[in-house]
Amino acid sequence: MKRFLKQLFFFGLIGFVPLLLLLVFYLTTDPFKVIYTYESYFENESKGWVSLNKSYVSTSTLLHNHKKLELDYDSFIFGNSRSIFYQTSAWKKYLPENSKPFHFDGSSEALGTILKKIELIENQGLEIKNALLVLDPPTLSQVEPKAGHLYITPPALVNHKNVVTFHWTFFKTFISPKFLIAFTDFKLSGTVKPYMTNNKLIQELSFNYDPITNEIRNDAFEDLIKKNQYYTQERMAVFYERDSVEQYHQPTIQPLQVEILQTIKNILSKHKTDYKIIISPLYDQKKLNRDDLKFLEDVFGKKNVFDYSGMNEFTSDYKNYYEDSHYRPQVATAILNQIYGED
Predict the structure, then answer these.
(1) Where are the domains of the chain?
(2) Exposed/middle/buried for 318, CB within 10 Å: 0-12, 13-18, 19+?
(3) 3-state DSSP call for residue 121?
(4) pLDDT of 112 over the 50 cut
(5) Which of 25, 224, 244, 285 sees the fewest Cβ atoms within 10 Å?
(6) Can you tell me the distance from the alpha carbon of 286 to that of 310, in angstroms, rounded to the nearest whole number?
């Protein structure tokens, strides 16, 4: 029996030591930047970076800038990654002087998360004088975020009730063989290799980031487009042939979405917010469901809802897109000109 216990202890120790070393490696490197606070979560012109949870980055940046830098933001852009191309420099032209805009976006953002972010702003004592809600059927259909470390809700949005699950999700991703091998190789070589970019583990894309507005700009892409070097054969492969007859999405606004959207409207009304609801012009050219559009117009007011889905001047030209998911800032700027021009 004693021999058995000794063997059990020995093998347990063998298993524990590597796990402990991995934990030390994780805490030391903080690859997902969820352990420590950062002045800026992205480095401009980076030679490679680990994919981060953008909703966490946005939330942490807002709280840090408000509490430490005493920045009282009053204008906010909400939505998924498509919303980041509504650049603050373009938006500020239509806002009152001295407005302080902030991008409060998240990857594959869920409608419920947008509400939590609006409630967080309120709880911080900030005003919401102006707001852009950049929506699309995927966002409207999601009440809760997708599973995985890139999408899990930041603890600050739920009163830290999920803090254990949140950090376990990231550590579990860290010790997974796919990530651990890629990350270790990247740290040692300093080079992003093709296999590392699989499953969005490590990114090689370079972009410009403003830690004050939380704004991302793909200036490198825009430079390539100006030089006629962006739309290569490889990139063109994603622009699939679309239906010649306009198609409509299935209804996405269900009872839970109704409750969330009504709550958002109530908060914006309380703040007397000047808001605009933008339905993104997606490359698929599918029109927002008629019932969904009518509901949005009934709740937020027809004059505040702008539907750019379906076949139109923006979706007809592939050069308005970086790929089949994200449209370029020139489209967002044109939309701002149209919707505020109509006012």
Answers:
(1) 31-341
(2) middle
(3) helix
(4) yes
(5) 244
(6) 5
What are the phi and psi torsion angles at 95 (to 5°)? -105, 160
Q: Is the pTM of this model over 0.70?
A: yes
Q: Which residues contact 242 (CB under 8 A, 6 or more apart)?
A: 283, 284, 285
Q: What is the pLDDT of residues 261-313, one digit of tens each?
A: 999 999 999 999 999 999 999 999 999 999 999 999 999 999 999 999 999 99
What's the Cα-to-Cα distance from 234 to each of 113, 229, 230, 237, 239, rounded to whole Å? 34, 12, 10, 5, 10
Rounded to an integer, the average pLDDT of 130-135 is: 98
- pLDDT by residue (tens digit) across 299-319? 999 999 999 999 999 999 999
Which residue do the tokens 């699989």 mark? Answer: 198
Give the span between the Cα atoms of 222 and 158, in whole angstroms. 37
- With H, G, I as helix, E, B as strand and everything else as coil, classify residue 133: strand
Task: Measure the CA–CA gap between 234 and 123, rounded to whole angstroms.
Answer: 47
Range 40-50 average pLDDT: 79
Q: Burial, 117: exposed, middle or buried (Cβ in 10 Å; 0-12, 13-18, 19+)? A: buried
Rounded to 5 degrees, φ, ψ at 127 are: -85, 155
Rounded to whole angstroms, the Cα distance separating 149 from 53 reads: 7
Q: How buried is residue 141: exposed, middle or buried, by Cβ count under 10 Å (0-12/13-18/19+)? A: middle
Q: What is the mean pLDDT of residues 129-153?
A: 96
- For tokens 């889905």, the residue is 309
Q: Is the pLDDT of residue 4 over 50?
A: no
